């Protein structure tokens, strides 16, 4: 069952439209660095997502995970599906836009753009955010998530893109490859696609699909890519 209020939260920010969003923010050891939005899996803003934020901060990013479920988390697959399906897409978009606004206006952020890293459901939202925010996003790294290509307007994407996908997944890799081929044709920035001999959610070290070798390789690639392209 979901656990209301369980999500780690330590910051608030205004959403476009006047409402208040919540999230988890960490600064790097230096106290300043490029901004990075971390987008949650379908489980919610769990302790695992908070740990990802801390890990990105340790790599030098001012990292923020907006709480898209309003404090709810779960470890049950059926409920996670329900929470994802019940999530108003427009509200999630406002939360993510508010997170970009917070970072670009934060005194600790040294970059003129933000990076975005998203996992599972968050991987799809990461690509959508890059399309909606245009040149405010310098780089996006989706992990095993993809928005519906038939209803996504890719024309707004100007960010460098690095995708991380599993061989064994619910996502059709042929569709993923077509999307990335299309992005390569559209964009005059790096577009990379990496596929791992692993299963969906291979970075999540709290789950059964965790693959240490694939996770370590993907993490190193993503951190380097984000550092190079978020300026």
UniProtKB/TrEMBL annotation:
Residue ranges of domain Dienelactone hydrolase in the record: 23-228
Enzyme Commission code(s) on record: 3.1.-.-
Coiled coil: none
Disordered, as annotated region: 1-27
Pfam family membership, one: DLH
Transmembrane annotation, as ranges: none
Keyword Plastid found: no
Swiss-Prot/TrEMBL keywords: Hydrolase
InterPro entries in the record: AB_hydrolase_fold, Dienelactn_hydro, Dienelactone_hydrolase-like
SUPFAM superfamilies: alpha/beta-Hydrolases
Domain of life: Bacteria
Keyword Chloroplast: no
Gene Ontology molecular-function annotations: hydrolase activity
PANTHER family per the UniProt record, alphabetical: ALPHA_BETA-HYDROLASES SUPERFAMILY PROTEIN, CARBOXYMETHYLENEBUTENOLIDASE-RELATED
Protein name as catalogued: Dienelactone hydrolase family protein
């Amino acid at each position: 069952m979901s656990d209301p209020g369980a999500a780690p939260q330590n910051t608030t920010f205004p959403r476009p439209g006047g409402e208040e969003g919540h999230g988890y923010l960490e600064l790097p050891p230096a106290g300043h660095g490029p901004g990075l939005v971390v987008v949650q899996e379908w489980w919610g803003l769990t302790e695992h997502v908070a740990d990802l934020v801390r890990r990105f901060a340790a790599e030098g990013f001012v990292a923020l995970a907006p709480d898209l479920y309003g404090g709810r988390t779960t470890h049950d697959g059926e409920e996670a599906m329900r929470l994802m399906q019940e999530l108003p897409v427009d509200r999630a978009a406002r939360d993510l836009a508010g997170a970009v606004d917070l970072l670009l206006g934060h005194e600790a952020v040294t970059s003129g753009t933000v990076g975005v890293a998203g996992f599972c459901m968050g991987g799809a939202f990461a690509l959508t955010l890059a399309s909606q925010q245009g040149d405010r996003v310098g780089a996006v790294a989706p992990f095993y998530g993809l928005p519906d290509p038939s209803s996504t307007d890719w024309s707004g994407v100007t960010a460098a893109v690095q995708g991380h996908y599993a061989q064994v997944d619910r996502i059709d890799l042929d569709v993923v490859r077509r999307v990335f081929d299309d992005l390569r044709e559209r964009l005059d920035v790096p577009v990379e696609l990496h596929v791992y001999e692993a299963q969906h959610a291979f970075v999540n070290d709290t789950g059964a699909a965790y693959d240490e070798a694939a996770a370590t390789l993907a993490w190193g690639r993503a951190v380097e890519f984000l550092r190079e392209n978020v300026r």
